[in-house]
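Problem 3 from the worked examples.
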Amino acid sequence: MHPSWIDYAVLIIYAVFVLGIGFALKRSVKNADDFFSSGRRIPGWIAGLAFLSANLGALEVMGMAANGAKYGLLTNHFYWVGAIPAMVFVGIFMMPFYYGSKARSVPEYLKLRFDEKTRGLNAISFAAMTVLASGINMYAMALVFQLLLGWSIHASILVSAVVVLAYTILGGLTSSIYNEVLQFFLIVFGFAPLVMLGLKDVGGWEGLVARMPDGFAHAWQGLGSASSNPMGIEWLGMAMGLGFVLSFGYWCTDFLVVQRAMAAQDMNAARNTPLIAAVPKMLFPFLVITPGLIAIALTLHPLRGAAPLLTQLPGGGYDYNMALPMLLQHYYPSGMLGLGLTALLASFMSGMAGNVTAFNTVWTYDIYQAYIKKDGSDAHYLWMGRAATFAGILISVGAAYIAMNFKNIMDYLQLLFSFFNAPLFATFLLGMFWKRTTGHGAFWGLVVGTLTAMGHYVLLKMGALHYPSDMAANFYAAIYAFGFCLGSTVLISLFTSPRPDKELAGLVYSLTPKHDATAIAWYRRPALLGGVVLCLTVALNFVFK
């Protein structure tokens, strides 16, 4: 199936629409606060959908489909274990510190809690991670355009970068947020028909299970031993590596998603932002992992007269990254193919714009203003934010070529998280809940944790360490990075002087007045919403155990 003029028309209409949002919102950007923080005027439900969509990049739809094809229903743990509990935690316990401290970014919170050098280290590592991660979105989108439109990888990267640059540089964070809400609905309506068509073809859920390899149809069975499940991880590594360190490290400290909640209109809206996002998040495995299951089923047991869906690679395994594009090509007729491509384009843009808006904020406030030009005017920093947007996208283009070296883009991203997010979570955990933590302890703990993860990767590549899968290696790298950062921070803090209690009010849990929710309608209280979300997640784990 090749795209027709109808498919191109759908794509062009979408591109014009998102650019129109950028132009329309350009007039509302009057100062740096409007550009970087949306003036803190975003309603809670819009911030919630943007919070989710910022994470719905190409990684989410293509990477999770690839993981579904490679690991089966174990991939659901990236949602039910590796996302929902952490989203509830950040909404109930951590947003009061982020929002209440009036910090403009996560690195700036670290400056308020610890010191300047800890902020600088986090700002630099976060800036590096965001542009590397946004390269994944570019690469994934280029793969799709190459397969379905026949474009070259290089041209696809260039065109997609220009579109995101245009609407982000015009409307700043507000433009990005409203486009992310639009992209959320496009992703849902673009992929839901694909799941239904695929399930119908393989004979429903029972037919799908019958075509998949052993162990692919259960989320928990087989986790007693690393050798008895396709991911090569046992329950302890899953719970600690993914469910605790990587998950909490990402959702609680990554400014990419936290920035959406910090743009909410008040404290209660900010706390509810990740909780609202958690509701659709828990259902997304049905939309993005099921296509991967269908792809591997149609590869191992093709329909009568059809060739295997996925291509076998010379080094072993299949080209899992192509699971979703191949299904789109297989099932969608003209018009529908345009809708599917638009949904993929939307996911790409939401992921990349999220990374770029986080990058331009951290660069401008936490690196440029902090170390290069401290006394610039508001107009100057607004100009610098737009210049950083351009530079961020340019660097992302280079990062896209790095992502080409990984057979599974999700493995690549988890590797980045183990380097940067895992040790940072240990720093935040201690900083927010142990007032004895010092700036020296936080800084050197971060250094030790990051070097531990990098050293683990070097030993792995030298053959000194062995794991059943790349994903298992990433989980354990995160555990080691978290553990070494935690231990180093505690040890150094015990031998250095802490700040007085009066300087830590609003920054440490035990020294911060608790948010009074009694004046808020019961159905808008974060604790209740968080409890409902957790109960539903436990039920999903039980049903698909």
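Problem 4, a separate protein:
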Amino acid sequence: MRFLIRLAGVLLAASVLIFLLVEAAPGDPARIMLGMSAADDTVAALRAQMGLDRPMAVRYLAWIGGLLHGDLGQSLTYGVPVAGLMAERLAVTLPLTAMATAMAVAVAVPLGVLAGARPGAVADGLATVLAQAGIALPNFWIGLLLILGLSLGLGWFPSGGFPGWQAGWRAAGALVLPAVALAVPQAAVLTRVTRAAVIDLAEEDFIRTARAKGLGRGRVLWRHVLPNALLPVVTMLGLQIPFLISGAVLVEAVFTLPGIGTLAYQALAQRDLIVVQNVVLMFAAIVLVAQAVTDALYARLDPRLRGRE
């Protein structure tokens, strides 16, 4: 219950900030949508249709009141309810980010453990180089390289677009390259964090005790070191959620995916204010929920945190 109260309070503060920032954006949304040559009376009519002729406080309260009743408003650009529009786009973005996160964890944790188990060895050097390259390269650039190599060069994956989930495996295949582009920077950071955690834990007393009892290197590593090394990995994974969302906006644009990031970009360019406000507020809610899930996992992995606030 306390979490829900805190979540509601933070979202309320975020909604005020989002509304003020959208209002402070330069340019008249009605004139931008109609074009600079539009007649003044036409612009005034559209302003009235958008509710821009009402006081700012009234517009904010109308937006929040609609949210509380499940009404996110009507998109002026697309002419459809914003809730349905966002749900349609989330059906692409959520599987994409989930696939990217799974790829990052599946690669980073074994690679980080392998590197941290033998610092200075060949595997450690190779993992360090790969991690530094992954951190240095922006994900949209990685996406362009993947299109050139694996799509246009080898023809293994589509270069862009999304056929819809009714296409089955073809739809999942369309998300593979975008997911890889999103996962590479995330996996690079997680590899570094996992490696550092494994090296630090190798000098702990309980690890020395396990070795003194005659346990093999592999058993000590996977049974005693890895579970404790996951604590900083989970923390970092939670902190990367905002970067994953912002990266999805660019990657969806590169691969022309009809996701929520593309919707946000198009709505901002077309001054579809109600869509922008709802999408950004939804991003804030996702980040807050992800942080709460991270805290829950952290307490689950570390028994010392159970029972604390």
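Solution to problem 4. Residues 82-117 form the longest helix (36 residues). The chain is about 75% helix and 0% strand.
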